[in-house]
Amino acid sequence: MYDHNLYYKPPLWLRNGHVQSVWPTLFRKVSLTEPVRESLPTEDDDELHLDWYRQGNDRLAVLSHGLEGHSQRPYMQGLARALLNDGWDVLAWNFRSCGGVMNHQPRFYHSGATGDLDRVVQHGLAQGYGKVMLSGFSMGGNLTLLYLGQKSEQVDSRICGAITYSVPCDLAGSADTLARPSRRIYMQRFLRDLHAKMEEKSKRFPGLIDITGFEKFAVSMSLMIATPPRYTVSEMPRTIGTTVLPCGL
Questions:
Q1: How far is CA 164 from the centre of its chain?
Q2: What pLDDT was estimated at residue 243?
Q3: What's the CATH number where 228 sits?
């Protein structure tokens, strides 16, 4: 039975959805110990940057951030603190190009590519934890659900569950909503961050990545560039679909 006492009741000044989105980003401060940073190599000679919070627990939570986020965002730190207080170790990882360090390969990340998450999860399991829980925000939540759906009944028995937040399960619909004039502030922020990365990539890989016409490119919540060879911005597919299957948890 649903417990109405668990329903979130925001204070009067936080009842607007836009205020709830913007205020924590600008003003929320989370007191948390400094993580131990680890660089995890990938099979394609790239690397993923992980933030470890270890307390010697037998349970590990793997946290995935949202589109153009990183492991030190307040929402990631807030969840990490709550989990640490509840007896979990925490592994918060950064998607390729996120967290202040540009990755080596031409590709970035996108919501349909679960290989990096699998690399992180397998690395966490290899540390000897008895239980592993997955959690993700927004696009990171979509990635988490897709990963478990792909694994289905083959998911490692030590993965005990998953919790996701604000997940854009309808990727095309989320992209359309983000393109509305009332969401322009969010779109502009994504475009600003992405444009800077694309410019750097085009300089590192001249002739491979062409950013001509970037200003006309509408960012889709379902896509964070996989950057295939010789793609221009205007040629990139608008969406990458996902299918969520029973994960057997």
A1: 11
A2: 29
A3: 3.40.50.1820
Into how many domains does the chain fold?
1
Distance, CA of 197 to CA of 195 (rounded, Å): 5
Burial 233-248 (b: 16+ CB within 10 A, else e): beeeeeebebeeeebe
Distances (CA, A) of 247 to 16, 50, 139, 145, 156: 35, 25, 18, 8, 10
Query: In this structure, is residue 249 part of a structural domain?
Result: no
Please list the rounded mean pLDDT of every run of 10 residues in the chain (249 residues). Answer: 68 86 85 95 96 98 95 96 97 95 90 94 98 96 95 94 90 79 82 85 85 61 39 34 29
The residue segments making up the domain with residue 89 are: 28-235
State the Cα–Cα distance between residues 8 and 11, nearest whole angstrom. 10
Residue 11 lies in a domain: no
pLDDT of residue 99: 92
| Residue 161 dihedral angles phi and psi, to the nearest 5° | 165, 180
Measured distance CA(40)–CA(148) in Å, rounded? 21
